TrEMBL record:
Superkingdom, natural source: Eukaryota
Signal peptide per UniProt: none
InterPro entries documented for this protein: Vps53 (IPR039766), Vps53_N (IPR007234)
Designated name of the protein: Vps53 N-terminal domain-containing protein
Lineage of producing organism: Eukaryota, Viridiplantae, Streptophyta, Embryophyta, Tracheophyta
Annotated source species: Lactuca saligna
Single GO biological process annotation from the record: retrograde transport, endosome to Golgi
Any Pfam family the entry gives: Vps53_N
Domain (Vps53 N-terminal): residue spans on this chain: 1-190
Length: 210
């Protein structure tokens, strides 16, 4: 039975049938646990290695599909977002490090445009800080359909905000270090109020992550 279930999983992985593969993977894991006492058996070792390889294939497929998110494919193919939703089911039964890496890759890619925009000469200024928080609010609002792809347990929008704050802090520190004159009190207060306003706006969702 273990042989046939692994073969079925292999077919599902090759066809990117994520929803079916997620359920099948749990079945294989349960069956493998029944053979824990036979780890020295060459056939069992071979099957375990095959299962491990299939999981790597699924991981590779999922990462590849998610790399297309934001390229316009989700608008061209109506089923693409559902396909990624199913992919998250597979991610959920893979190693936790896969989930963490996927979310980090997604958040990093989301922030590439932010980093490029606010490193430019026009916006890399303290008095433009408010625009930074307007950017992330707009991003979260306009990408609501994308956030629905991910299970709430992954806290993707929350983690995006965390990475956004870390990046913003780093960029603002660089700006302060390179200032020729000390900033005036009004500008500093504006920055503080911008941060507080953004934090209060996200507070209900942040509380929901606990």
């Amino acid at each position: 039975m273990l042989v046939s279930t692994i073969e079925q999983l292999q077919v599902m992985a090759s066809k990117k049938q994520y929803k079916e593969a997620s359920a099948q993977q749990e079945v294989v894991s349960q069956l493998c646990s029944h053979f824990d006492g036979y780890r020295d058996n060459p056939k069992i070792t071979e099957l375990r290695d095959k299962f491990k390889n299939i999981k790597q294939i699924l991981k590779s497929h999922v990462y590849s599909d998610f790399s297309s998110l934001g390229t316009g494919k989700e608008r061209e193919e109506s089923s693409f977002l559902q396909h990624l939703t199913d992919a998250c089911l597979v991610v959920d039964v893979l190693d936790p490090s896969v989930r963490e890496e996927l979310v980090k890759k997604f958040c990093d890619r989301e922030l590439i445009s932010y980093q490029q925009i606010f490193e430019g000469a026009d916006l890399a200024k303290l008095d433009k800080t408010e625009r930074r928080y307007a950017w992330v609010k707009r991003r979260l609002r306009t990408n609501e359909e994308i956030w629905k792809i991910f299970p709430t347990s992954l806290h993707v929008d929350y983690l995006l905000c965390i990475q956004f704050c870390k990046l913003t802090r780093s960029q603002l520190e660089d700006i302060l270090e390179n200032l020729k004159e000390k900033p005036d009190v009004g500008t500093l207060l504006m920055i503080v109020f911008s941060i507080l306003d953004a934090a209060s706006d996200r507070e209900p969702k942040v509380r929901g992550q606990g």
